[in-house]
Amino acid sequence: MKNNFVSVGKILNFHGVQGEAKLGYSKNREEFLSKLKSVYVMQGGEYKELEVVRLRFTPKCGIIKFKGIDSLNDILEYKNQLLFVDEETAREYLEEDEFLIDELVGLDVYDGDKKVGAVVGVSNNGASDLLSVKTLSKKVCLVPFVKAIVLSVDINNRRIQINNLEGLLE
């Protein structure tokens, strides 16, 4: 079985000379990241596992240290690399109302019993996640992924139920 990998952050730069790195990540993911024992980087078309020795957070980024990476030169080769976990690990730490982006793309969007479109992407504006919904008239509209608008997500039946507020989907 082939593992699917999910990006959880990015090595932005080195931090100091002991092999630590600055870690960029999505807001409010500190608790999830703190639980990770290892992550993967893509090298030469393969996923290479890196064991996490320690991780701490500053107001702007994470500071991460990997086993066996003990100098500035060791960490520099990983600069700008995305960090991944396998999909199973990502799922273990999802909250009840959280989903992987891959799961949402392609789902049909309904307002009541009426199909109004399909999810073609997911983004974040800093305040909330946004679903990019391609309507039946082929227009792409952004729908805030908040409880007042997205009433339910049913992955098994590939369906998202929304409260189509006035002017939300044109």
Overview of the molecule:
The chain has 170 residues and is mainly beta. It folds into two domains: 5-92, Elongation Factor Tu (Ef-tu), domain 3; 101-162, PRC-barrel domain (SH3 type barrels, Roll). It is built from four helices and twelve strands; from the N terminus they run ββαβββαβααββββββ. The strands form two sheets. Strands 3-4-5-2-1-6 form a six-stranded antiparallel β-sheet. A six-stranded mixed β-sheet has the order 10-9-8-7-12-11, with no helix packed on it. A hairpin with a 2-residue loop joins strand 7 and strand 8. It starts with a strand and ends in an 8-residue tail after the last strand. The mean pLDDT is 86.
Topology:
Blueprint: E1 5-15, E2 20-24, H1 30-34, E3 38-43, E4 46-57, E5 62-66, H2 72-76, E6 82-86, H3 87-92, H4 101-104, E7 108-111, E8 114-124, E9 129-135, E10 140-144, E11 150-154, E12 159-162
Parallel strand pairs: 7-12
Antiparallel strand pairs: 1-2, 1-6, 2-5, 3-4, 4-5, 7-8, 8-9, 9-10, 11-12
